[in-house]
Design a protein that fits this description.
mainly beta; Pnp Oxidase, Chain A; eight-stranded antiparallel sheet; two-stranded antiparallel ribbon; 1 helix; about 5% helix
């Protein structure tokens, strides 16, 4: 049985979930510490044939891509806030919406323990449907302040051209 690795046949452990980065507009987004799962589901269309209506047939229907949540510690980088404000800028109403720039393509890079890119996913036509600028504040807590966004997307795909990294290098 194969190990699941071509270049790194010595490796037995799968990749971990703690090394990744989100790339937007060609640069890594500062401080993202959590990204929700990439999930898609396809509706099932059920039908029967008139001559054989005791048997149910199934075929694929619409495919839906679930929204992806992203969290990061609050810093002075306002990238999430600017992007969220393109959908609905305060005080400007519908006329203030940036129809040309509110959807962005994102790249999610998953890395091995050495920080080499192992997988790259392209997320298409993303936009912010939910933005939490400031979490609940609690003077008795010992926690980092986290801002979060919920990103709607029209699709994603794994970049097949991203090669398996050479871990011996």
């Amino acid at each position: 049985m194969g190990s699941g690795f071509v270049k790194n046949a010595h490796r037995f452990d799968p990749y971990k979930t703690f090394k990744f980065r989100v790339v937007m507009d060609g640069r890594a987004v500062l401080g993202v510490n959590k990204v929700g799962a990439l999930k898609r589901s396809t509706d099932v269309v059920r039908y029967r044939s008139g001559g054989d209506n005791s048997t149910e047939f199934k075929s694929p229907g619409r495919t839906n891509y679930d929204a992806v949540s992203m969290e990061r510690g609050i810093t002075h980088d306002r990238e999430f806030e600017r992007w969220a404000s393109q959908v609905h800028p305060y005080g400007k109403g519908d006329a203030g919406m940036d129809l040309a720039g509110y959807k962005k393509d994102l790249i999610l890079e998953v890395m091995n323990e050495k920080g080499q890119i192992a997988f790259r996913y392209n997320l298409f036509r993303c936009w912010v449907s939910e933005f939490v600028s400031l979490p609940q504040l609690d003077a008795s807590a010992n926690a980092v302040a986290i801002e979060s966004i919920k990103v709607e997307l029209e699709g994603w795909e794994r970049d097949a051209d991203t090669p398996e990294p050479d871990e011996k290098a």
